[in-house]
Design goal:
Length: 99
């Protein structure tokens, strides 16, 4: 495999889009220390999984776009056995992306 000079695990972040695109409402940038984030903010598949990010700082640009700056602990909020496997799989995927 040839190297492109870019880190393979670095997520590509698109610039914020206008509020007319995908019915997104632009929000002011803000830092949040500690947050419960619905998976829809991190995954276009809109899976019904919720993640609890503890002791984190996230930069929120608009409704469907959350940029995680620091993560010290990531937990899944498992409220249903039927959703537990999906939640665990998504947690592993998220950890591989942001850690």
């Amino acid at each position: 495999m040839e190297s492109t000079g870019q880190a393979q695990n670095t997520p590509v972040v698109d610039p914020p889009q206008s509020s007319a695109v995908h019915d997104n409402v632009e929000q002011p940038m803000e830092e949040v220390d500690g947050a419960e984030v619905n998976d829809t903010t991190l995954n276009a598949n809109r899976r019904a999984c919720f993640f609890r990010l503890l002791n984190v700082k996230v930069l929120c640009s608009h409704r469907w776009n959350v940029h995680v700056l620091e993560v010290h602990k990531l937990e899944v909020v498992e409220w249903d056995e039927a959703k537990a496997t999906t939640a665990k799989n998504n947690t592993a995927r998220m950890k591989s992306i942001i850690c």
